[in-house]
């Protein structure tokens, strides 16, 4: 069964914005810290972008602080990532998962930022 579904990516120019959404199954979402991660082109690893506790407290990796905003809607089992002032180096596939992560990742959503 599908447990994580990401959406909202696209091709944008630098300094533009995107809003990503991730809907999770209840067993993954409820009461858990949720995170967004990025897999850069040609890179096998996923790096942490931001996470939000089950009480709504956000944290950001340094490159994204001040530009990205993570939020969650518990009624919809959905976590969002508002991405502003995008840079070409933000390009990648964005995934969500809980912390600690489940093994079954979603398909991710591609974000491409042109200069």
Measured as a percent range, the helix fraction is under 10%
What is the helix tally? 1
Question: How large is the share of residues in beta strands?
Answer: over 45%
Q: Using the CA coordinates, give the radius of gyration.
A: 13 Å
Main sheet: strand order = 2-10-9-4-5-6
**Unreliable residue stretches:** none
Based on Cα principal axes, name the global outline.
globular
Overall average residue pLDDT: 97
Between the first and last Cα atoms, what is the distance in angstroms? 38 Å
| SSE sequence, one letter per element | EEEHEEEEEEE
In brief:
The protein has one helix spanning 26-29; strands at 4-7, 10-13, 18-24, 33-39, 47-52, 58-60, 68-73, 78-83, 92-99, 109-114.
Question: What key attributes describe this structure?
Answer:
about 120 residues, mainly beta, six-stranded mixed β-sheet, four-stranded antiparallel β-sheet, 1 helix, 10 strands, about 50% strand
What this model shows, in words?
With 115 residues, the chain is mainly beta. It is built from one helix and ten strands; from the N terminus they run E-E-E-H-E-E-E-E-E-E-E. The strands form two sheets. The protein has a six-stranded mixed sheet with strand order 2-10-9-4-5-6, with no helix packed on it. It has a four-stranded antiparallel sheet with strand order 1-3-8-7. A hairpin with a 7-residue loop joins strand 4 and strand 5 (47-52). The longest helix has 4 residues, at 26-29. The chain is globular, with a radius of gyration of 13 Å.
């Amino acid at each position: 069964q599908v447990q994580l579904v990401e959406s909202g990516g696209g091709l944008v120019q630098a300094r533009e914005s995107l809003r990503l959404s991730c809907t999770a199954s209840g067993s993954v979402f409820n009461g858990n810290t949720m995170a967004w991660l990025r897999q850069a082109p040609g890179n096998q690893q996923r790096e942490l972008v931001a996470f939000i506790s089950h009480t709504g407290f956000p944290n950001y990796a340094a490159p994204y602080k001040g530009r990205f905003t993570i939020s969650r809607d518990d009624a919809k089992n959905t976590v969002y990532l508002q991405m502003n002032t995008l840079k070409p180096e933000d390009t990648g596939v964005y995934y969500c998962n809980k912390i600690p992560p489940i093994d079954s990742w979603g398909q991710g959503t591609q974000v491409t930022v042109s200069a």
